[in-house]
DNA sequence: ATTGACTTTTACGTAAACGTAAATTAAAAT
DNA sequence: ATTTTAATTTACGTTTACGTAAAAGTCAAT
């Protein structure tokens, strides 16, 4: 298993190193360190970063993303903990589903507006 | 046709009046005024506000939303303008489609993680 | 007519999510 | 060995999207 440096990840995702360090400040990602203190990122860290960026694109706050990440990498073994995690996950799943439906409606509207514009353009072309 | 006051809209959408005035500051919404200067919102204004809030839920910035709104209420008649508007709309439509696909993938992943957790819970229940 | 609820503008404050710069140290390249 | 490039921490700055408060005018109800 080999590692990524911070600038490699920054380049891959087209974000700044500051941004990556900021996510670490906020507890979202935890790279290991070399003896001299340099950060090294595993594939898993990379995957987490990808998750963070995806969450951001959907308008989730870093705090929300933080919670969702704990859902993913969490080793909760207790029954109570498991139930809590499942309940939280179900709620988030519901939110995601709602967003999808919402977005699909938006898509519909945009398509109808677009076809309206296209029609107008057709008419203009006709009278040229 | 009758009007809404700012606090009526604020209540309907569960946002502050400050927020609505801020959207106006940014040029996203333009209510008419009474002689004394009070803002009055039409149904159309209400629809625009709804659009803004939806855009926000999807993580669009007010600036992006502004652009998308001009797409909706815009009376562009020139051929060049129409073509530009259509091109912009198609691009946004593509973005929305990508987001939907992205979200559906996220949904899949969450579902699989959840079923994994549920399985674990089952096993725990079994050994009780 | 006056109280109370609502609205307006102006303006300063704030949290989130970084940007940017400085000083220092380490790694990579020549 | 020494330049160049990349990394680290610290810390102050900035933008977006509002919150909050003050001062003053207005509308609605009693």
Could you characterize what this model shows?
The structure is a homodimer. In chain A, helix 3 crosses helix 4 (about 60-75). Chain A is mainly α and about 130 residues long. Chain A has 2 domains: about 1-60, Multidrug-efflux Transporter Regulator, Chain: A, Domain 2; about 75-128. Chain A has helices spanning about 5-15, 15-25, 45-55, 60-75, 80-125; strands at about 30-35, 40. The interface between A and B is large, with 36 and 36 residues. The structure holds a DNA duplex (30 and 30 nucleotides).
Short recap of the structure:
Chain A is mainly alpha-helical and 128 residues long. Chain A folds into two domains: 1-58, Multidrug-efflux Transporter Regulator, Chain: A, Domain 2; 75-128.
Q: Provide the helix percentage of chain A.
A: over 70%
What structural class results from the helix and strand content of chain A?
A: mainly alpha
Radius of gyration of chain A: 22 Å
- The span between the termini of chain A is 65 Å
**CATH fold-type name of the largest domain in chain A:** Multidrug-efflux Transporter Regulator, Chain: A, Domain 2
Mean pLDDT of chain A: 90
Overall geometry of chain A: flat
Broad CATH class of the largest domain in chain A: Mainly Alpha
SSE run of chain A: HHEEHHH
Summarize the biggest pleated sheet of chain A: 2 strands, antiparallel
List the domain count of chain A as a whole number: 2
Count of helices of chain A?
Answer: 5
User: Roughly what fraction of the amino acids of chain A lie in strands?
Assistant: under 5%
**Segments of chain A where pLDDT lies below 50 for 5+ residues?**
none
Order of neighbouring strands in the sheet with most strands of chain A: 1-2
**Multimeric organization:** homodimer
In the CATH hierarchy, what is the architecture of the largest domain in chain A at level 2?
Orthogonal Bundle
Keywords (chains A, B): Coiled coil, DNA-binding
GO molecular function, one term (chains A, B): DNA-binding transcription factor activity
Domain HTH merR-type (chains A, B): 3-71
Protein name (chains A, B): DNA-binding transcriptional regulator, MerR family
């Amino acid at each position: 298993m080999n590692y990524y440096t911070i600038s490699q990840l920054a380049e891959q995702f087209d974000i700044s190193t500051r941004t990556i360090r900021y996510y670490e400040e906020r507890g979202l990602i935890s790279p290991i360190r070399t003896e001299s203190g340099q950060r090294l990122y595993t594939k898993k860290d990379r995957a987490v970063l990808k998750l963070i960026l995806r969450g951001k694109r959907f308008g989730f706050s870093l705090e929300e993303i933080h919670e969702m990440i704990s859902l993913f990498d969490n080793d909760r073994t207790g029954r109570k903990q498991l139930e809590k995690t499942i309940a939280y996950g179900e709620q988030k799943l519901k939110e995601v589903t709602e967003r999808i439906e919402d977005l699909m409606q938006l898509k519909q509207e945009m398509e109808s507006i677009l076809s309206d514009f296209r029609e107008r353009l057709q008419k203009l072309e006709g009278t040229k």
